[in-house]
Specification:
The protein starts with 8 loop residues before the first strand and ends in an 8-residue tail after the last helix. The longest helix is centred in the C-terminal third of the chain and has 25 residues. Helices cover about 35% and strands about 25% of the residues. The strands form five sheets. Strands 3-2-1-6-12 form a five-stranded mixed β-sheet, with helices on both faces. Strands 7, 8, 9, 10 and 11 form a five-stranded antiparallel β-sheet that branches. Strands 15-14-13-18-19 form a five-stranded mixed β-sheet, with helices on both faces. Helix 9 links the parallel strand 18 and strand 19. By secondary structure, it is of the alpha+beta class. It has a domain of about 150 residues: 2-Layer Sandwich (Nucleotidyltransferase, domain 5). Helix 1 packs across helix 3 and helix 8 packs parallel to helix 9.
């Protein structure tokens, strides 16, 4: 049970297959203590979007209440993730003057600041779209150029931004569904960028890198150039589609297909004996049915190739013909499918690694898993956003952030990764 006086932060990852709630506190060393967790199967989501608000509400409530029982009180306002094919992004090189009060350090915008930018009428004139996140890529506070917004103070700031917009109905449905579960929302964050917080290194961002977060319902892509986000996209193909292909191809129920995929699945099929079989079982007490492993793997291979081609086509259509030197970092629950990284490396002609939340954050071992990259990233987002706002309010006339503060120490910590 957490101390009532402790400053706590919370994240809510509403995915297609699971809902994860994390509550944590920041240590003076820059690490994070996880003080409560909640997990529930997700029902009512499709391809990262809410299709059955009532079902999603129940899933959220189950996850959050589990965390609250451990915490001994209500979770604090959450930073919730948003994704889906309804999201559109673009880069704006035109300066946009916005009040400094809505610009958190490091360019992390909450819902209110995103709306404030949108209301200026400079970001988008798309009907039915709302600014979900605007990430500054260059800065000019009161006429002084800088490459980082941290510690900038003044009346206004001009910047080129990476702007992410979402369908108003989809965004509002997500927000209202979360709130209907009795959860207060501090802000929304793009899941692609949240996962990047947890698994990418500063060196990878500077070299240029592609993050591909392959979850249950979507593959979320974030491309970085020279340390800044350059492109984001969500492809509505991911783990559930692998499972559906197995179910259809082998003529077995979806739950049996998911089970056999996780236990025996791989994208490697060439050297598998055509006579080798594995048992596909729906669950405890159900009669097992033998299926050919070579057929299973061939189905997974073909879907993996399609997904990688879609990724490459999406990047190429936005001007990224060659993969940057930082390569591709795969994360998300479906990224660990055996053989998938090799297919990505072959098609991308680049180094590939599986990204997991790094041990530098001091996280429990069970969270050091690609499945929880978004959940951990959202919590990091919540902590950094609040810590940065606190440092600015404590020093309103400062020209730079405080040295030695928790925020500065956290910014100095980066996950380590090696190419595969």
């Amino acid at each position: 049970m957490a101390n009532a006086r402790e400053q706590l932060y919370a994240s809510l990852d509403v995915g297609t297959t699971k809902v994860v709630t994390l509550v944590g506190k920041a240590n003076p060393s820059g690490s994070i203590d996880i003080v409560a967790t909640g997990y529930a199967p997700s029902v009512g989501m499709r391809k990262g979007m809410v299709v059955s608000p009532e079902a999603v509400r129940e899933s959220i409530a189950s996850s959050v209440q589990q965390a609250e029982r451990s915490l001994g009180r209500k979770v604090p306002p959450v930073v919730a993730g948003v994704t889906g094919s309804h999201l559109k992004s673009r880069n704006s090189d035109d300066p946009v003057n916005v009040p400094m009060s809505v610009l958190p350090a490091n360019g992390r915008f909450n819902e209110a600041s995103g709306n404030a930018l949108g209301s200026a009428g400079r970001l988008s004139d798309a009907v039915g779209m709302r600014v979900v996140q605007a990430v500054p890529r260059s800065y000019n506070a009161n006429g002084s150029g800088d490459a980082d917004s941290s510690g900038m103070f003044g009346k206004s700031i001009g910047h080129g931004s990476h702007i992410v917009m979402g369908d108003v109905v989809s965004v509002d449905t997500l927000l209202s569904t979360i709130r209907s579960a009795g959860v207060s929302v501090h802000s929304l964050a793009l899941e692609h960028l949240a996962s990047s917080e947890a698994v990418l290194t500063s060196e990878e961002r500077l070299m240029g890198v592609i993050l591909a977060d392959i979850g249950g319902g979507s593959c979320d892509i974030a491309a970085y150039r020279e340390g800044s986000v350059w492109h984001t996209a969500s492809i509505p193909v991911a783990g559930q589609h692998f499972t559906n292909d197995v179910a259809a191809g082998l003529g077995i129920p979806p739950n049996a297909a998911e089970r056999v995929k996780l236990l025996y699945g791989s994208t490697r099929f060439e050297r598998v004996d055509a006579k080798e079989t594995v048992d596909a079982q729906s669950g405890a007490g159900a009669q097992a049915r033998p299926v050919h492993r070579k057929t299973l793997n061939r189905l997974l291979h073909d879907r993996a190739v399609e997904l990688v081609r879609l990724m490459m086509q999406r990047l190429a259509s936005n001007g990224l013909i060659r993969i940057p030197s930082g390569g591709i970092v795969l994360t998300g629950g479906s990224a660990t499918l055996p053989g998938l990284a090799e297919i990505v490396a072959d098609y991308g002609k680049c180094q590939v690694r599986i990204g997991v939340p790094s041990s530098v954050w001091g996280l429990p071992e069970e969270l050091a898993n690609a499945t929880y990259s978004t959940s951990v990233g959202l919590l990091l987002w919540a902590i950094r956003q609040n810590a940065a706002a606190g440092e600015r309010s404590a020093h309103p006339a400062a020209a730079a952030p405080r040295s030695g503060g928790w925020f500065s120490r956290l910014m100095g910590r980066q996950p380590a990764g090696a190419g595969v």
